Amino acid sequence: MTIRKDPYTTDTIGKLIDGEYALTLYCEERHNGYWCHWYKKLDLEKLALKLGRDHGSMHWDLVPHLWCLKCGSRNVSLRLSPPTFRDPKTGQWRQRRESDTGR
Ligand SMILES: [Zn+2]
């Protein structure tokens, strides 16, 4: 486990990267009553190149730039994941498993 400087706020893309957060895009669109359910872990480095590290990372900062790659809907939501999680079996804090984030 590497020592890193945790930012107290996560209001810019750069701070999310520095804090090793993961941001996942979820499609909230329904088609004939069925949820689209498409989701993708965002490539924050790529997003930072496009929008800049100082670009806001809040919902309304990012959502205008994002859409579902399956159905094309702009009805999307974002979920922020911290770099650690509590193991449900042991209750211990662990590093996020890469398999959880779809990387
Ligand atoms: Zn969709």
Question: Can you give a write-up of this model?
Answer:
With 103 residues, this protein is of the alpha+beta class. Helices cover 17% and strands 24% of the residues. The chain contains three helices and seven strands; from the N terminus they run αββββααβββ. The strands form three sheets. The protein has a three-stranded antiparallel beta sheet with strand order 4-1-5, with no helix packed on it. A two-stranded antiparallel sheet has the order 2-3.
Summarize the structure.
By secondary structure, the protein is α+β, with helices and mostly antiparallel strands.
How does the SSE layout of this entry go?
Layout: H1 13-18, E1 22-27, E2 30-31, E3 34-35, E4 39-41, H2 44-51, H3 59-62, E5 76-81, E6 84-86, E7 93-95
Antiparallel strand pairs: 1-4, 1-5, 2-3, 6-7
This protein binds zinc ion (ZN).
Radius of gyration: 15 Å
Strand proportion, as a percent range, falls in 15-25%
First-last Cα distance: 19 Å
Helix content: 10-25%
How many helical elements?
3
Largest sheet: 3 strands, antiparallel
Number of strands: 7
SS-derived structural category: alpha+beta
Shape: flat
Strand order of the largest sheet: 4-1-5
Count of distinct structural domains: 1
Q: Please write the string of helix (H) and strand (E) elements.
A: HEEEEHHEEE
| Mean of pLDDT | 87
Spans with pLDDT under 50 lasting ≥5 residues? none
Task: Catalogue the ligands.
Answer: zinc ion
